[in-house]
């Protein structure tokens, strides 16, 4: 990358997530002496963001770029070593940015949790990204950094061979809730993601025409609701964490001949009533999202269909600063590793390891910390990222870097809770 380029350019800096990304970038500029710029299509809005969040940072340029103008995107991306893309839903707005980054040989990270977009980008642009020598890495926010790096942390600490990992997400707020908890943009991405979920089977058959060999014993199937290690009622997590983790595990198997871990991903609620209410609303949400009329209703009345959880304004500062998350991982496997990844163990698993990742403001502040540190890792540790380019998952990209240590410094904590061996 040319020396005159900025380290990072944040595209969509005047949006809800983009503003938080600018705030984190300003902090990193002071701590690590990085140079960053902000970009979008409205100069006045960008000037206001710069005055509010980066007034004490010298030389933060404003770069005007419009998704409808291909040349403006190239002019933007060629000024960055890493482009931080905060413009979603990515299924509508992500691909032109990817093309511009490939054309100008610019790394890109984003916070997409949309499997259809992420896997389409891998299918269509992995070869071009490799040839350009750049990394395209999606899901660098709450979807799916805690999950991806939590699984890798657990594998590293297991001291043996892992067969299965189940993750359990819990969130809670330690103050009076005075606003919604999610911004409309996040909700909109979810609506279209569920609406087009049926695209994934054909997409994955093209992406991975050969199936992995079977591994035993198989991960135990859980019911729609089950009691979990998180002291509550758990159900399958509807986000992209599991899909991304499985791609990472396949990457490790194909590149490093490492036995792939079977993954289960769940979200936990304190009460049975909350869990059942969530299921009911989830069924309604999924049914409506399948039809244009239903999607229009969901998008027109987000607060109603989310029981006040979503709004156009998003969460207040008070709610964000007092919202916490914990992701608990239960790994089962053997104390001894097999010689080959496809070798079958003669005995049942004899070890259980529990780990945990915790943090604050997962949706926005925490997400943007993860996002900007992911960009910083590409800048500082590209020699530890495999393949010298391509479309990678966060886990496959950052497994051998210091990103976990950097997140720990920002109060996104990774820890071992317990380890039990059985004879």
UniProtKB/TrEMBL annotation:
Domain Saccharopine dehydrogenase NADP binding: 8-137
GO cellular component, one term: lipid droplet
Gene3D superfamilies linked to this entry: NAD(P)-binding Rossmann-like Domain
Annotated source species: Dufourea novaeangliae
Pfam families: Sacchrp_dh_NADP
Family: Belongs to the saccharopine dehydrogenase family.
PANTHER family hit by this protein: SACCHAROPINE DEHYDROGENASE-LIKE OXIDOREDUCTASE
Name the record gives this protein: Saccharopine dehydrogenase-like oxidoreductase
Positions of transmembrane segments: 266-288
Alphabetized UniProt keyword annotations: Membrane, Transmembrane, Transmembrane helix
Highest taxon, organism lineage: Eukaryota
InterPro entries, per database record: NAD(P)-bd_dom_sf, Saccharopine_DH-like_oxidrdct, Sacchrp_dh_NADP-bd
GO biological process: glycolipid biosynthetic process
């Amino acid at each position: 990358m040319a020396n005159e380029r900025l380290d990072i350019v944040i595209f969509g800096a005047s949006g809800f997530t983009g503003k938080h990304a600018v705030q984190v970038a300003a902090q990193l500029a002071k701590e690590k002496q990085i140079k960053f710029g902000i970009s979008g299509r409205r100069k006045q809005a960008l000037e206001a963001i710069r005055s509010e969040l980066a007034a004490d940072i010298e030389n933060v340029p404003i770069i005007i770029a419009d998704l409808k103008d291909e040349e403006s995107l190239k002019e933007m991306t060629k000024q960055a070593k890493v482009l931080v893309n905060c413009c979603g839903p990515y299924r509508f707005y992500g691909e032109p940015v990817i093309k511009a980054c490939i054309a100008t040989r610019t790394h890109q990270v984003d916070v997409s949790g949309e499997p259809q977009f992420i896997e389409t980008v891998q299918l269509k642009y992995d070869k071009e990204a490799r040839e350009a020598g750049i990394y395209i890495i999606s899901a660098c926010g709450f979807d799916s950094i805690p999950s991806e790096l939590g699984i890798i942390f657990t594998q590293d600490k297991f001291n043996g061979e892992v067969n299965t990992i189940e993750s359990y997400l819990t969130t809670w707020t330690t103050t009076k809730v005075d606003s919604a908890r999610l911004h409309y943009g996040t909700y909109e991405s979810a609506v279209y993601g569920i609406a087009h979920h049926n695209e994934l089977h054909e997409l994955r058959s093209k992406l991975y025409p050969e199936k992995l060999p079977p591994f035993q014993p198989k991960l135990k199937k859980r019911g729609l609701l089950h009691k979990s290690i998180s002291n509550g009622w758990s159900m399958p997590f509807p986000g992209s964490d599991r899909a991304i983790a499985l791609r990472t595990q396949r990457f490790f198997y194909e590149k490093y001949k490492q036995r792939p871990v079977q993954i289960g991903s769940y979200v936990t609620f304190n009460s049975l009533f909350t869990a059942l209410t969530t299921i009911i609303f989830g069924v309604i949400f999924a049914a409506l999202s399948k039809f244009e009329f239903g999607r229009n209703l969901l998008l027109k009345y987000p607060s109603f269909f989310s029981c006040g959880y979503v709004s156009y304004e998003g969460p207040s500062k008070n709610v964000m600063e007092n919202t916490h998350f914990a992701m608990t991982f239960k790994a089962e496997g053997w104390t001894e590793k097999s010689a080959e990844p496809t070798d079958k163990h003669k005995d049942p698993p004899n070890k259980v390891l529990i780990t945990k990742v915790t943090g604050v403001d997962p949706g926005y502040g925490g997400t943007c910390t993860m996002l900007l540190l992911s960009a910083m890792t590409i800048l500082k540790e590209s020699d530890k990222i495999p393949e010298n380019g391509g479309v990678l998952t966060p886990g496959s990209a950052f497994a051998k870097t210091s990103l976990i240590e950097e997140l720990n410094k920002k109060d996104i904590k990774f820890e071992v809770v317990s380890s039990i061996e059985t004879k």
